[in-house]
Design a protein that fits this description.
Elements lengths: L2 H8 L1 H12 L2 H17 L10 H30 L8 H6 L12 H10 L2 H21 L1
Length: 142
């Protein structure tokens, strides 16, 4: 075992304490320590000899923690946007549920729904009304 690995092993109790403070959860803390140690071993060449290994690993851990929290927040926002009730977002979402429009069969259909979601609510009605007319027209034609 190298000197770096020995020093890293001696820091494990401190890393665990710091991870517990960040996560406030025992299991998440151990996962965070594992991620930090794994990254420290991968990035060992970037560590500058003569500097504090403790500070370096704590910075790695803090950055990993922040990245994980950002990713979780983005995932939650994405899921929340995908699980909204169709009626709560205006007629465009209700139309997206209608298979007759081809939005769900189309590989680009989800993009159309996402674009509708970006529109202000009052502007979502205009394209939706036009689509309804086409749907009614198709129904009459058939």
């Amino acid at each position: 075992m190298s000197a770096f690995q020995n020093d890293l092993q001696l820091l494990l109790p401190d890393l665990i304490r710091f991870a517990r403070m960040l996560t406030r959860n025992e299991n998440d803390a151990h996962d965070l320590v594992q991620d930090c140690v794994e990254r420290a071993l991968r990035k060992q060449a970037l560590f500058q000899a003569g500097t504090s290994l403790k500070s370096w690993t704590f910075t790695l851990m803090r950055n990993i923690f922040i990245s994980q929290r950002r990713r979780i927040a983005l995932d939650r926002r994405y899921v929340a946007g995908r699980t909204r009730q169709p009626g709560s977002q205006g007629p465009a979402f209700a139309l997206a549920q209608d298979h007759g429009l081809g939005l769900t069969d189309n590989p680009f259909g989800n993009n159309v729904v996402d674009i509708f979601a970006l529109l202000p609510i009052d502007q979502r009605d205009v394209p939706a009304r036009g689509e309804r007319r086409q749907v009614v027209g198709r129904g009459v034609a058939q």
